[in-house]
Amino acid sequence: MTNRISSPTIRMFRDLASLSAVTAVSLGLAACGSEPPPPAAAPVAKRAPAPPPPPPAPTVTPIADLMARYDIDPRVNMSEDLAPDNDAGRIAVLRFFDAFARGDAGRLGGMLSGMDAFLLEQMAASGEWETATSNIIGIDVRTGSHPIVGDCALAVFMVDNQFEPQLWAYEISGDPAADGAEFDAQPSPPNMMERLSGEDWITAWFNILGEEMARATAPDEIVEIPSQDFTEEDSGSSSMGNPAGGPGGGGGAPGKRKRPKGPKIDPNPGFAPSGN
Predict the structure, then answer these.
(1) How many CB atoms lie under 10 A from the CB of residue 132?
(2) Phi then psi for 90, rounded to 5 degrees?
């Protein structure tokens, strides 16, 4: 006998199978949901804004380019390491010594202080300026600064195989290409070329000036006057009296003189007081 399962029973098993599948999925989902969540990612620290780039270093025009631009006489020599660190100073110094090399008193006079300009006029009028500049072979220039005087330019002139140094302080107040700088000559002691030494000649120059000033203000000769003790020992005089040799004391001492011995002399002879 064959057992047959009715259609409703088959549908019931199918429903139970579907329910079991749904339950398994639900249980699986529930099991997955019970796991702890993954750890949260660590917060990313905000980076500080990058500092702005430093300003570009000031650029200077090479000496060779400036000499070509301003038609500087080739006898003027200034190396890069001894030149000013700015174009204004380089142009002013190059044009100043270019006027020396060319013997241009007119242009040079516009760049000199009052007293130096006056002396230049006198030299030009006497012909001394032309004589002094006509035999210039070369001008070696170096620059620097002094804490009191300011910017300086030291030039060594080679004239007739002899070297003559000069030191100038300068100040730029306008366009250096239009003579907007003023130069002031500094004192020059004798034999400076032989006395300069070291790497910084400008500092050495002012050190020599200080030595010369100290020597000039010192007295020519310091006279020492020996001291003498005039105190004499007391020889038997009373403690209430004057010591020997003091005022009113023994012979030869200044002060009251001793009354001479002998008859008293009337200072007014022939005068008799009334009543006698």
Answers:
(1) 15
(2) -65, -45
pLDDT of 239 > 90? The answer is no
CB of 154 closer than 8 Å to CB of 142: yes
Q: DSSP letter string over 39-61?
A: PPPPPPPPPPPPPPPPPPPPP--
Q: List pLDDT tens digits, range 43-60.
A: 766 777 888 888 776 689
Residue 254 to residue 141: CA distance in whole angstroms: 74
Burial of 13 (0-12, 13-18, 19+ CB in 10 A): exposed
Domains of the chain (ranges, CATH numbers) = 63-187 (3.10.450)
Three-state secondary-structure class, residue 7: helix
Partners of 77 in the beta sheet?
140
How far is it, in rounded angstroms, from Cα 15 to Cα 270? 188
Residue 169 has pLDDT above 50, yes or no: yes
On the CB side of 76, how many CA atoms lie within 13 Å of its CA? 28
Q: How many whole angstroms separate alpha carbon 22 and alpha carbon 18?
A: 6
Q: Which residue has the tokens 């009296």?
A: 241
- Bridge partners, 146 (sequence order): 150
Q: Please give the pLDDT value at position 55.
A: 77
Q: How far apart are the first and last CA of the chain?
A: 215
228 — pLDDT class (breaks 50, 70, 90): low
Q: What is the reported pTM?
A: 0.61
Contact assessment for residue 133 and residue 159, using Cβ atoms and an 8 Å cutoff: no
Separation of alpha carbons 115 and 134, rounded Å: 23
